[in-house]
Design goal:
By secondary structure, this protein is an alpha+beta fold. The protein is built from ten helices and nine strands.
């Protein structure tokens, strides 16, 4: 996308304001009809929509429910609409246009139609095509921006919710600091020695560094209010080059604190942080088939098994178990 200058943005805003003025949208009432802009949008939607609910109206008009409720209440007082209760669910209100509403729509809709027709008739065929394309593209841009902002708000809300749950447990999540290494390494050794989660044979400090602290890794730790490190995870690109948009992560928790929901919160937090880092997907390359707790959690969080590797992990007793490749899109 080209870098937009402030002059270009101001010019578009100026022309948009001119369109609003030319259409007479600054007037609270439409000529002598006495219907507001919001009420016109409501009646236009009802004319092409059979029996919507209040929630559906709010979604179609891009209004929050309280604003939609006020709009519908005022339209009812003017006699434009009425509502009935759904036969199956009495709490659900179905919106209908009244005869007064239909007459009001018939009074202003031809004005708007002819206004648009008259404006286009002054332009050439090529200019009309440009208008169609330009308005459609600008509407697309506005929608994309709205959805992007809504997504960012939803992601912040999810992280706030996760942080609230950490606080409810008396815990907090933060980036790894140099002073955390010894205590996090103790957890790493414990997890490797259990043989139930990581396929590494070595629990050395070198192996710990190699797995957790690559050049593009970010490591997070969860700690108690007293500063005790209880676990953590890393996030890093699973592949390099043109596949570096896929993340990889691994989690570990101190054995004395398992079964308390910490693992679930670590996984959820890693997904949200991976999104903030710009990753588009998360992939686990080797999940033990006998690690039933982890498999159940990952699938609950939206991961799918996309690959099966027979006899992938050698157990301490000499037998083998299957390994699974799990994958999840982050735009979910």
């Amino acid at each position: 996308m080209k870098n937009l200058s402030s002059e270009e943005i101001d010019l578009l805003r100026h022309n948009a304001r001119c369109v609003v003025r030319e259409l007479g949208l600054l007037n609270d009432a439409y000529f002598e009809i006495g219907v507001t802009l919001a009420e016109r949008h409501l009646l236009i939607e009802l004319a092409s929509w059979d029996s919507p609910t209040m929630g559906e109206i709010a979604e179609r008009l891009l209004l929050d429910k309280s604003t939609a409720s006020r709009l519908i209440g005022k339209a009812m007082k003017k006699g434009y609409i009425q509502y009935t209760s759904d036969a199956k669910d009495k709490r659900k209100k179905i919106i209908h246009m009244t005869e007064v509403g239909r007459r009001t729509l018939a009074a202003f809709e031809p004005i708007a139609f002819n206004q648009t027709k008259d404006a286009l008739s002054t332009l050439s065929a090529e200019e009309i095509e440009l208008v169609y394309r330009g308005v459609a593209l600008y509407a697309k841009g506005l929608k994309n921006s709205r959805l992007k902002n809504r997504k960012l708000i939803e992601e912040r809300d999810r992280l706030d919710e996760i942080n609230g749950r950490w606080a409810g447990l008396g815990l907090a999540l933060r980036l790894f600091a140099e002073g955390d290494e010894e205590r996090l390494y103790e957890i790493f050794r414990e997890v490797v020695d259990s043989g139930n989660q990581f396929p590494y044979e070595s629990n050395s400090i070198q192996e710990f560094h190699r797995q957790f602290f690559g050049p593009n890794s970010q490591v997070y730790v969860v700690h108690s209010s007293g500063g005790e490190i209880l676990g953590g995870f890393f996030i890093k690109p699973n592949f390099s080059g043109r596949s570096d948009h896929i993340a990889n992560a691994a989690y570990m928790i101190k054995s004395t604190h398992r079964g308390q929901g910490i693992g679930t919160l670590l996984a959820k937090a890693s997904l949200e942080i991976a999104k903030e880092l710009g990753f588009q997907a998360m992939q686990f390359n080797m999940v033990f088939s006998q690690n039933f707790v982890a498999l159940k959690l990952y699938q609950k969080l939206g991961f799918n098994i996309v690959g099966t590797i027979p006899s992938a992990i050698r157990n301490p007793d000499g037998n083998y178990q299957t390994g699974y490749v799990l994958h999840r899109e982050l735009d979910m």
